[in-house]
Write a structure and sequence with these properties.
Strand content: 15-25%
CATH architecture of the largest domain: 3-Layer(aba) Sandwich
Number of helices: 11
Radius of gyration: 21 Å
Number of strands: 9
Structural class: alpha/beta
Bound molecules: S-adenosylmethionine
Length: about 280
Amino acid sequence: MSAIDALPPLREVIASHGLSAKKSLGQNFLLDLNLTAKIARQAGDLRECDVLEVGPGPGGLTRGLLAEGARKVLAVEKDSRAMAALAEIAAAYPGRLEVLNADALEIDPTAYLTPPIRVVANLPYNIGTELLVRWLTPPDWPPFWQSLTLMFQREVAQRIVAQPGSKAYGRLAILAQWRTEARIVMDLPPEAFTPPPKVRSAVVHLKALPEPRFPARAATLQRLTATAFQQRRKMLRASLKGLHPQIERLLEGVGIKPTSRAEEIGLAQFCALARALDEVSPR
Ligand code: SAM
């Protein structure tokens, strides 16, 4: 294996900076720099792009992104123990790495980055879905990013690319496929991480579409799908009745049988129902 940079191996970095993994922060580190460079390559040519990385930890993926030529990386890390290790990387790549010791849920990355922007991250499992939903549901489209290249537990990755009728199909599939082209691009076994998690992981690449596939308001579609899939085995006329007193009429109006279940309904119909709900209860 060839070294991707002149910095010390990650095991040494972790030992010298006392970065023992904390479960509460979802810390499962990637220590193979050839693997992190491979993940960075899944995001495409980064040379003309700024990159947002959430949760750099000891910096394995950060080094992959920089070695692959990212114009600038903004790395947002909650764990202050990682700051010294990340400062060493910043020194090795002058002017190209900015590190924020912050909670990714609390900051506005656009204040630090210049378009075009891509997001690449090995996300902490406890905030991964929340961040993804936020990135997918701004009121306006296109978003601040061109693409998201994200590591998830494999089961979450499957929910993002799932099709109607499958067990994994739900809110995440609809929100992701509504506004992006989403595919699983890598599969990783637990042994790829230190410490190894209990489950397999996968990298999903989501490319922002210039326009959503069907018109709808993001907030309405989000509320509708969250409600519909909360009780996925129930008929829609029952699971959605809290959304509008005449939900049966609205369902029929957009060609959905009120006795059908959420997992049988495709993206186009969910968007049509979201529009119908907004027509009867405009905000
Ligand atoms: N990128 C590193 C890698 O691939 O080896 C670490 C990935 S580890 C799965 C997730 C990282 O996210 C940890 O470094 C953790 O401290 C950080 N993290 C957890 N919660 C965070 C938050 N709310 N905001 C920013 N970083 C967070």
